[in-house]
Amino acid sequence: MNKKNVSQIRKDFPNLHVKVHGKPLVYLDNAATTLKPNVVIDAITNHYKTTTANIHRGVHYLSEKATADFEVTRNKIKALINAKSSAEIIFTRGTTESINLVSNSYGRTFLKKGDEILISEMEHHSNIVPWQMLCQEKGCILRIIPFTDSGELDLNAFTKLLTPKIKFISIVYISNSLGTINPVKTMIARAHQLGIPVLVDAAQAIAHLPIDVQELDCDFLVFSGHKMYGPTGVGVLYGKTELLNKMPPYQGGGDMISSVTFEKTTYNVLPHKFEAGTPNIADVIGLAAAIDYIQKLGWDYIEKHDQELLDYGTKALNKISQLRLIGTAKQKSAVLSFVLPQIHPHDLGTLVDQDGIAIRTGHHCTQPVMKHFGVPATARASFAIYNTKEEIDKLVQSIEKAKKIFK
């Protein structure tokens, strides 16, 4: 690991320099949300200090400047994921709203009673519940791709489930609770042989590996800014132009209209058709700074750093007697979920917090995953660009200390 780079990166994140219970913060909860670098914080602050205005409709300087900054982010996202057009980039509040937009707009319009929707057993609740709600409303049927005990999707089962009855697939790229990297490109290609559109949940993937929507050939892709060192409250829906044009608006209001009379309303063109009302302007601008930060680091560094931490952390945790890793797929991201027989994850999380260590405990909004492994919850350490092997050592020491308390 390039310690010099990590040391420099850590200086960019002010939150890393706070103390928790008098101890230096060890932040290992990145799958829930990442910390924010100074450039993101400064971009948001600068907007509120110098360019506060509503966008798209004003002709004065501040409005035109805010509009330009806002649309710069859209263009940066287009480049980041290699979309064909910036009109294919829709701003939302996050991954959850993006999925709900598709389930409501596409699902209500094109799916009917008896149609089947395919998701996996490892989905986040935000990629389960919207489809369940749609099934209840439309009479559709939800089908589930199982995964193995190592946390890998059963691709044979997936192939068998691909029947003409399946009319939509929504699949996670990287599992937030298992770290599994799913073979979404292969799955999309198989689905498209039957003409089935596919949505990819890239919430966990967006900060860990490069994404090319044209190479994947996904029909929709969703992610959140706060998982990629950007602000909370802003997310993205990418959709192919031909599909977005066929879909009705998700919400009604200002900016998504072309003209309004009491007799008839005509809707705006893409992407504005799906962006009703005043958006989260400052945080969209902050997201541009996060994208710049990631690209300055480069994917080679990010992926290598992830792999080093994952390898080191896996070996370190496996040395702890009786600790059981949950999710041991061959293709994994930097997520380590685990259980100890004598300590409930919530108790473990409370104890390591006393040492300044932030991990996530619970079901991670993936209760079907917990049910699969027969556990009520897990503890989860998830890594990012600013984490170090020394922080993993501190986690191991804290876990060993907790074991002695419960012994």
Contiguous runs where pLDDT drops below 50 for at least 5 residues: none
- Enumerate the strands of the largest sheet in spatial order, edge to edge or round the barrel: 4-10-9-8-7-5-6
CATH superfamily of the largest domain: Type I PLP-dependent aspartate aminotransferase-like (Major domain)
What value does the Rg take, in angstroms? 22 Å
Q: How large is the share of residues in beta strands?
A: 15-25%
Distance between the termini: 35 Å
Mean of all residue-level pLDDT scores: 96
Total domains, how many? Answer: 2
Alpha-beta content class = alpha/beta
Q: Report the CATH architecture of the largest domain.
A: 3-Layer(aba) Sandwich
Q: What is the CATH level 1 assignment of the largest domain?
A: Alpha Beta
Find the count of extended strands (DSSP E, 2+ residues).
Answer: 17
**CATH T-level topology of the largest domain:** Aspartate Aminotransferase, domain 2
Total helical segments: 14
Taking the sheet with the most strands, its summary is: 7 strands, mixed
Q: What coarse outline follows from CA principal-axis ratios?
A: globular
